[in-house]
From TrEMBL:
Family statement: Belongs to the universal ribosomal protein uS9 family.
Species this protein is from: Bipolaricaulis sibiricus
Bilayer-spanning residue ranges: none
Keywords annotated in UniProt: Ribonucleoprotein, Ribosomal protein
Listed GO CC annotations: cytoplasm; small ribosomal subunit
GO biological process: translation
Protein's UniProt name: 30S ribosomal protein S9
Lineage: Bacteria, Candidatus Bipolaricaulota, Candidatus Bipolaricaulia, Candidatus Bipolaricaulales, Candidatus Bipolaricaulaceae
Gene3D superfamilies per record: 3.30.230.10
Length: 120
């Protein structure tokens, strides 16, 4: 889950009190991967470097956290400037990834994996 705050600024992105490059570099994301994903809401709206971003994120893995921050940025941009809704929606940046872990069923080893079958 991510909580994102936007304000007019220098384009700096801070995640959990650390610069985004530093926070996500621990997960072996390259700078180009960060720019392509984390900054995509700004590219879609043409607002690169106009806002300072402060985000608190927890839970999930590194990719999930990155996408949660990206969704938070997109929603915050729409909150500040409603005209940004169309370009962000067209770019698919306002869609929440609704996939969740499938539950384990009884009689199975995992969600779908069955016990090994022995014919004899």
């Amino acid at each position: 889950m991510a909580r994102v705050y936007l304000k007019e600024g220098d384009g700096r992105i801070t995640v959990n009190g650390r610069p985004a490059e530093e926070y996500f570099s621990a997960f072996a994301f390259g700078t180009d991967h960060l720019n392509r994903h984390l900054l995509s809401p700004f590219y879609a709206t043409g607002t690169i470097g106009r806002y300072a971003v402060r985000a608190r994120v927890d839970g999930g893995g590194p990719t999930g956290q990155l996408e949660a921050v990206r969704l938070g940025i997109a929603r915050a941009l729409v909150e500040m400037t409603p005209e940004f809704k169309k370009p962000l929606k067209d770019a698919g940046l306002l869609t929440r990834d609704s996939r969740a872990v499938e539950r384990k069923k009884y009689g199975h080893r995992k969600a779908r994996k069955k016990e090994q079958y022995s014919k004899r």
